[in-house]
Amino acid sequence: MALTGTEALAADASARAAARRAFERGSQLYQQARYAEAAAAFEEAHSRLPTGVILYNLGQCYEKLGDLEKALASYREYLRLEPRAKDREGVQQRIADLDTRFEAMRQPLVSVTSEPAGAQVRLDGQDRGQTPWSAPIEAGKHALELSLPNHQPVKRDLTVRAGEPIQLQLVLLPVAPVVEAPQSTPVPVIEEEAPTRGRTWTWVAAGAAGVAAAGAVTLGIMARSDSRELTTRMHERTEVNRLRDSASNKSRTSNILYGVAGVAGAASVTLFFVEGSF
User: Fold this and answer.
1) Less crowded by CB within 10 Å, the N or C end of the chain?
2) For residues 230 and 1, what is the distance between their CA atoms, to the nearest angstrom?
3) Which of the 8 DSSP states describes residue 174?
4) DSSP β-bridge partners for residue 110
């Protein structure tokens, strides 16, 4: 029995010495801002000799590393092991602050603006307000939809990741007006004169000019939106190329549509006089 007790004391002393060496190594690494290595050393020290002081230092390492979940667990375990700690109030305040930060990371802010503004925002099938709109959103996949009278709705699938806020700027295209040929009013026949014909093709050409002009204006707005996004925010190279190409293509298509609108407008003027002569 005496021999067994002596061996237990020796093993305990050895564990304490190993824990002390790991703790001192962790303290030195922490001072050198090598927080990941310091955390590993403190973990080793705690496994050999669980104490509140080690857990407090471990919490500081995890806080520096941005792992708020492990930092909170370490601080809470520290208070459990040290119920009479002199710095208890300070640690409780730190836990409250980290809880707030952790919640913000878990629910990053999602901001949505639109052109034109005032679009109705629906997230996962629920109305959430009008653009410009922003709110913290749970991490995960979500379905976003914007709607505005006389405009085509916009739908997007969002993947929200913890700690990554999202900013979206969306353009809603106006609904093209439906051009209907006016119904001609029958003219009574006077002394065998042929009835006057309506200017059907004149109105068709005018309608085509209007649709082309509306498309040109819309694409011009979208090109300016892409250019503004490119110049006002930092982007990765692939995103820069995409925005530049998108703005260029939309601007070129807008110019083509302006040309089509001009030709259609000129045709409608010509047809106005030509159809009126029959």
Assistant:
1) N
2) 79
3) B
4) 135, 166
Please give the distance of CA 253 from its chain centroid, rounded to a whole number. 28
Where is 166: in which H helix or E strand?
Answer: strand 166-171
Task: Find the DSSP H helices in the chain.
Answer: 2-31, 35-48, 52-65, 68-81, 88-106, 200-232, 237-276
Amino acid in position 32: Q
**Lowest model confidence (mean pLDDT) among 55-64, 150-159, 228-237:** 228-237
Strand order in the sheet with 109-115: 133-136, 109-115, 166-171
Q: With contact defined as beta carbons under 8 Å apart, do 225 and 243 qualify? A: no
- Confidence at 249, pLDDT banded by 50, 70, 90: confident
- What lies within 8 Å, CB to CB, of 172 at 6+ separation is 114, 115, 116, 119, 146, 148, 151, 152, 153, 154
CB 177 within 8 A of CB 161: no
Residue that has been written with the tokens 């093993």 in this structure: 11
- Compute the distance between CA of residue 77 and CA of residue 70 in angstroms, rounded to an integer: 11
Distance CA 92, CA 39 (A): 21
pLDDT digits (tens, 9 = 90+) for 29-56: 999 999 999 999 999 999 998 888 899 9
Task: Name 244's Cβ contacts closer than 8 Å, sequence gap at least 6.
Answer: 226, 230
Residue 115 near residue 169, CB atoms below 8 Å: yes
Classify 40 as helix, strand or coil. Answer: helix
What is the CB-side half-sphere exposure of residue 192 using CA atoms within 13 A?
A: 0
Residue 155 carries which side chain, given as an amino acid letter?
K
Q: Assess contact for 243 and 226: CB atoms under 8 A.
A: yes
**Rounded to two decimals, what is the model's pTM?**
0.41
